[in-house]
Amino acid sequence: MGWDRYNSPKALQPINDLYENEFPLFLNLFQPSVKLQKVIRKGARRTRIYDEPQTPLDRLLASKHLGQDKSDELKALRESLDPFSLAEAINSKLEGIWDLAHYRYQSSEPSEKSSAKEAELSAWRDKRWKLSRTFLG
Question: Which residue in 65, 76, 108, 120 has the fewest CB atoms around it within 10 Å?
């Protein structure tokens, strides 16, 4: 979601929906990643050795810590999903979330504190304007 700020209750529901539904499926079933195996150090130089790129599901299936029935269920889930339509759904949700990036929650009634601050700021601006006119001629 980038560096934008999402501080409104309106943005919370779409973000939670994305992270609970489409995003984990895409990440765990279709997005390969590499894992660091070892680091070889020769003097000041370090060489990192990585394993082959695999999805988290492929790593889980290769680990043999999963029962056959659960393994078959997860394989069927991956076969039933289309990664391209899943990516399109993620992108459309992200576009909706990005529209809420700079939305700030404000009450409909201005507080006394904010109106007093605005009056103080306005008086300060007027004073500065008058002072600048006297020096500029």
Answer: 108
Contact 17, 81 (CB under 8 A): no
Q: What angle do CA 67, 69, 73 make, to 5 degrees?
A: 115
Give the DSSP letter string of 68-120: HHHHHHHHHHHHHS-HHHHHHHHHHHHHHHHHTTT-----SSPPHHHHHHHHH
Tell me if 21 sits within 8 A of 93, measured CB to CB: no
User: Comparing 26 with 2, which gets the higher pLDDT?
Assistant: 26
Helix (H) or strand (E) holding 122, with range, is helix 112-136
Q: How far apart are CA 46 and CA 67, in angstroms?
A: 39
Q: Which pTM does this prediction carry?
A: 0.65
pLDDT tens digits, residue range 90-103?
999 988 888 877 64
Q: Which residues contact 2 (CB under 8 A, 6 or more apart)?
A: 98
